Amino acid sequence: MTDRRKITRTVTIELEAGGASMVELGKMLGPTGVNIRQVKSEFDERTAGQRGDVVPAVVTIYEDRTHALRLKTPPTAFLIRRTLGIKSGARRPGHDVVGELTQAQLREIAERKLPDLNTDDLAAAMRTVAGTARSMGVRVV
To answer: Residue-wise over 1-34: b if at least 16 C-beta within 10 A, else e?
Structure first.
């Protein structure tokens, strides 16, 4: 069955899993007229198992002010920083190195990101993650 409701807007939000901020949601979704409290409770409920992660979600808002919520995987840079235990990337990527990512760590991050990437080839996903790591000043060994 296809959804025949008319889409008025889609908004991508990026919030902490299991504890979305009403203030941030209000800023992003306030002008749309959607029930923010309902979006928050649905987001928190569906991301409760990922507490501590930053989880992007696409909120599709329909003409009747109802919504659909599609969760995505955490950003690649967030996963790399968490894996290495660093706060941020290098000030001068390509010159400064803030950490090293092993092939096993690279594979683990690529497997987690695979559903959101435009490939289903793990090797291509690993190259994509490695490119993000290099742009952050992280060496892949």
So the answer is: eeeeeeeeeebebebbbbebeeeebeebbeebeb
Provide the whole-model pTM.
0.81
Spell out the CATH class of 76-140: mainly alpha
> What residue ranges do the domains of the chain occupy?
7-71, 76-140
Predicted confidence band at 124 (pLDDT cuts at 50, 70, 90)? Answer: very high
The model's pLDDT over 100-109, given as tens digits with 9 standing for 90+, comes to: 999 999 999 9
Number of neighbouring beta carbons within 10 Å of residue 59: 21
CATH class of this structure's domain 7-71: alpha beta
Q: DSSP label at 139?
A: E
Asked if residue 53 has pLDDT above 70, the reply is yes
DSSP secondary structure letters along 91-114: SSBTTB--EEE-HHHHHHHHHHHG
